[in-house]
Specification:
Layout lengths: L2 H12 L5 H19 L6 H14 L4 H20 L4 H8 L14 H11 L1 H5 L6 E5 L6 H12 L4 H4 E7 L2 H14 L2 E6 L16 E3 L1 H17 L1
Parallel strand pairs: 1-2, 2-3
Antiparallel strand pairs: 3-4
Length: 231
């Protein structure tokens, strides 16, 4: 059984008291919050609010169910190590959690990859070792970004080293999904909650609506150290 199928099986086994949609949403929220807060050294109000959100969500589940959440997290990491694809988007759609009312549908990954291979060709051909900046205004589960990372990797360009992303989505679920997958893949990314058209991301954006991947945080520390050495 693949890791993705095992995650689906676990979500189904946890359903009953809550719907599969609720279990999935709670799981990705807790995983994303756990990663982000473990990367923050300053325990300010944003950190405390996120920690409380994590605690409040986990209280909905008993000890064994919490262990199952951890197992699912490990399975997701294994799946993304084996193959760069939108695992969470695929799980969401295969479990038929999409809704016409909310418009929550995720692009099949093979279409995302086709789009990336077409649009990234000029970037690959002109690559000179500089950082590749990518802005995704409606990130969903991060499928287009993952596809771009895969295309770069296949072209011999390490996306963990040369790709930097700003990903924005109006729905917190999309933020958590993107942040979780990009964190596990090791992509430098700032993932933002908000309407890209009305509230495009800038450095003054509210901290409570920003999640920064471990790779981006480490990249920032590395840059500061390099600047200090240069000085």
């Amino acid at each position: 059984m693949t890791a993705k199928k095992e995650i689906i099986k676990s979500i189904e086994s946890l359903s009953g008291k809550y719907s599969p949609y609720e279990v999935f949403s709670d799981w990705i929220r807790c995983c994303a919050l756990a990663i982000q807060n473990n990367c923050c050294m300053i325990h300010d109000k944003v950190w405390q609010d996120r920690e409380q959100a994590y605690i409040d969500t986990m209280r909905r589940y008993d000890a064994q169910e919490r262990i199952e959440f951890c197992k699912m997290f490990a399975l997701l990491g294994d799946a993304l190590t084996d193959d760069l694809t939108d695992i969470l988007g695929e799980i969401y759609m295969e479990m038929q959690m999409g809704s016409k009312a909310s418009g929550q549908f995720f692009t099949p990954f093979h279409l995302s990859e086709l789009t990336a291979r077409t649009s990234m060709q000029s970037v690959i051909e002109s690559f000179d070792g500089s950082m590749i900046e990518l802005n995704e205004p409606s990130s969903g589960g991060g499928g287009m970004i993952i596809a771009a990372a895969k295309v770069l990797r296949d072209a011999g360009i390490n996306p963990q080293k040369y790709l930097r992303v700003v990903a924005q989505d109006l729905d917190w679920k999309g933020v958590y999904m993107s942040y979780l997958q990009l964190s596990l893949i090791g992509i430098r990314a700032v993932v933002v909650q908000g309407d890209t058209l009305k509230e495009p991301y800038d450095r003054n954006y509210p901290k409570s609506r920003i999640m920064i991947t471990p790779a981006e945080l480490l990249g920032g520390v590395t840059w500061l150290l390099e600047e200090a050495d240069a000085g």
